[in-house]
Amino acid sequence: MQAARNKGRIMYEDHHVMLFQDLSTDLHKKRRLFDDVKQRLRALKIDYGFIYPAKFRVFHEGKPHLFADPSSVDSFIKKLDT
């Protein structure tokens, strides 16, 4: 997936090919648990993203921080407010 992302547009016999990760319903539900903290991070203009399958990564002051659950992200955000 990363190679396809780096390549950009992929063509095969004059047809545009699109690749998507296959996320299970269970994995999608786990990622949805982070929706609240994602909204708060957006408001603070802090970059974030997922590492497959469901590790949450926050970029703050040039450093990545990894989290396994939304409550630990919430604690991190609260520390930023103080």
TrEMBL record:
InterPro entries: L1_C (IPR042566), Transposase_22 (IPR004244). PANTHER family: L1 TRANSPOSABLE ELEMENT-RELATED. This is Uncharacterized protein.
